[in-house]
Design brief:
9 helices, mainly alpha
């Protein structure tokens, strides 16, 4: 049972990293013909579900077409002032969740401190739960039109062509909830079994 527990915790904790990079992080839809315009820039159809890997790839292509979208210039753009704090909080939540994943791997595999491992797992679960309401604070201004594509691109025509009609977290959010939830419940269950067996 001891080695089975260690193997399960190692697999689940390390799975957080490929999940974060390669599974869909956000679901994005455009209204109007702005989507077609972006597809032409990319040279391919933009998927509705975007992984972190795909987001980086898309941003690099778009920034090559629109230099005004460089990271530093975009961060200084007044139109995103209202979402800077949620963006920072969201980034911190993801970073903490991934760091927690490393701690779970270390304590779950190399120590017998299951209560501490359960605590880390619960903190990771709490961070994952908090991601959705924080991301909604980021998405709402885009879907309401308060932050327009035109203001980001520096092209007023972009507003005529369309806007963001839907923006939400995708598979990464739900898989993080599942992984941290399973690790929390599994660790507590194993600890209860050990306690009842007198170990």
């Amino acid at each position: 049972m001891k080695y089975f527990y260690k193997a399960v915790m190692a697999i689940l904790s390390l799975a957080l990293f490929p999940v974060f990079v390669f599974l869909p992080l956000i679901r994005l839809k455009f209204s109007g013909s702005i989507g077609t315009m972006i597809n032409k820039v990319l040279g391919q159809e933009l998927p509705k579900n975007l992984s972190l890997y795909k987001i980086i790839e898309v941003l690099n292509k778009v920034k090559a077409e629109y230099p005004s979208l460089s990271s530093s210039k975009l961060w200084e753009n007044e139109s995103i002032a209202s979402i800077k704090t949620p963006l920072i909080i969201f980034a911190v939540l993801i970073a903490v969740a991934l760091i927690i994943g490393i701690l779970i791997f270390i304590f779950g595999v190399f120590t017998r401190k299951k209560l501490l491992t359960a605590l880390f797992s619960a903190i990771g679960l709490a961070c994952s739960i908090a991601m959705n309401p924080v991301f909604e604070m980021i998405a709402k201004p885009f879907m309401s039109g308060k932050i327009s594509l035109g203001s980001l691109l520096g092209i007023s025509l972009a507003n005529i062509l369309g806007s963001v009609s839907y923006l939400a977290l995708s598979a990464v959010y739900f898989v993080f909830l599942l992984l941290f939830g399973v690790m929390t419940a599994f660790t507590i269950a194993i600890k209860v079994v050990e306690y009842n067996s007198g170990k």
